[in-house]
Amino acid sequence: MGVIDGRTWLEHLSPTECWSLLAATPVGRIGVLNDSAPEIYPVNHVVDRDTIVFRTDPGSKLRGLLRSPAVCYQVDGIDPADATGWSVLVKGRAIELHDPDDLRRVSGLPLHYWTLGDKAHWIRIVADQITGRRIWSRTTPGDAPTTGSQTEPPGADAEAQ
């Protein structure tokens, strides 16, 4: 864990923790190339055996990821009041599922999407790389920085034991 400014820590997350955060966060953003230009779309997803699965309708998102399947996927959690948060980034390849056994299996996953439409196309992102970061803050915005005896980030006392 690195110290940023004496009161803020940047923690690099393990792949296991990244997958846990992905599984606990129902909405993320997929980055695709569409006609050589990057585009980002929010999607509802579910984690399935260290892959990300979502459904989509025909359109620019599907067209872009089928033409250029190298994608990135990001989820995060932010607390502006405490100036803390985390972010997980997955880089990988998007694959449209066609195999009847695969489709049967993923149709039983607890994927809940917020928009209307059939969402007839099932997409799986196979991760090549997963990284995550968490920012811990000792003080909330507006508080004076601590001096002398300083408080450790959450969980630091457990690390010392």
- Count of separate structural domains: 1
Estimate the strand proportion.
35-45%
Largest sheet: 9 strands, antiparallel
Question: Could you tell me the number of beta strands?
Answer: 9
The CATH fourth-level homologous superfamily: Electron Transport, Fmn-binding Protein, Chain A
Q: What separation lies between the terminal Cα atoms?
A: 17 Å
- Top-tier CATH class: Mainly Beta
Helix content bin: 10-25%
Please outline the helices and strands.
Elements: E1 2-3, E2 8-12, H1 15-24, E3 27-34, E4 37-44, E5 46-47, E6 51-56, H2 60-67, E7 70-79, E8 84-96, H3 100-107, E9 121-137, H4 156-160
Antiparallel strand pairs: 1-2, 2-9, 3-4, 3-7, 5-6, 6-9, 7-8, 8-9
Quick structural summary:
This protein has about 160 residues and is an alpha+beta fold. It has four helices and nine strands. The protein has one domain (about 1-140): Pnp Oxidase, Chain A (Roll), CATH 2.30.110.
Describe this structure in words.
The protein is an alpha+beta fold and 161 residues long. The chain has a single domain (2-138), classed as Pnp Oxidase, Chain A (Roll), CATH 2.30.110.10. The protein has helices spanning 15-24, 60-67, 100-107, 156-160; strands at residues 2-3, 8-12, 27-34, 37-44, 46-47, 51-56, 70-79, 84-96, 121-137. The two termini are 17 Å apart.
